[in-house]
Amino acid sequence: MIKRDLTELINRRLKKNPAVSLVGPRQCGKTTLAKSLKGMYFDLETESDRIKLDAQWPDIINSDKLIILDEAQTVPEIFPRLRSAIDKQRRRMGRFMILGSVSPALMQQVSESLAGRLGLVELTPFILHELPKMPVDDLWLYGGYPDGGILDSSQYFYWQNDYITLLAQRDLPQWGLPAKPMTIQRLMKMIAAVHGQNWNASQIGSSIGLNYQTINSYLEYIQGCFIVRLLEPYTANISKRIRKSPKIYWRDSGLLHTLMQVRDMDNLFSQPWVGASWEGFVVEQIINNLKAADKVFNPYYLRTSDKYEIDLILDFGGRLYAIEVKLTSSPDSDDVSRFRKAAEIIEAKRCLLISRTQDYITSENFVSANIQQALDFLMADTR
Q1: Sign of dihedral through CA atoms 257, 280, 13, 375?
Q2: pTM for this structure?
């Protein structure tokens, strides 16, 4: 079993909270990680486990073992019972772990029943730091889902197709998205086609025959299962005119590539949108690796009306890092000069130019590096 970076963070949260909610997309490894903690495991999608939990509830909640409740949103009546059990022994920490695929039902139950009683931790598919011996391009092509090809390349593309189909036909409708599966799949393909671009719900809606309000409401459900990310614009203290609509990314590059019918690296490099794919992959790796290390920050992007851009801005409480992503092994002086000018607009503390270079270059507040080097730098510089 590959050790997940979040294990230590979960243990710290359990020491400080009666319960921890481990959320994330389906099939990203939540159950495997939870079972590794050696608690009492209950799969609440299984009738036998639901019956056992209900019949033995008094004995179970008095156990010294961690109680793990998987897919808790399928049994909403469990949340008031959890709240009651926690409140009767408020000082006991690390009693419950609640797993869920981030459906609106789970978030509603957590906010209504367990607010102030639990820590929230997000698990993503595999990230670079967890796969130090894996070629970066493998993770980029296949994505990080354990069963999606990163551990067995023969599974790639077919597994992702099944995953997307199940989301559209089962999960999203069950979670309340009021659209037909065919419409959901069309929407997901259109989101893939605008990966890395500014979100325009009206444009998407006109292609499907729906208004922008409906498209935005559907997008909330798709965001809710952690497969797309909206990156908000940075607006603080900017004198220039800027783009104010968020940028949208598919969070897992393997799902993006499958939706765009890409099966191998040669095919990927032939695509006109390959730069946007690389940018999204790097952005997601930075955000997920830093969050797994329990770094506290807010991510943004910047694009001004005179076309100065910063692909990713990390705001560590007013301490800004500007990050530019290039699909090249040798960034030129023009790339560096324009990026530095963009970083000056936001008064960034650090400028990171991330490419496919093998060289590591630093000068004053500027770093040019590849993704592994950049992650090592960020981990050390943000302590």
Answers
A1: positive
A2: 0.94
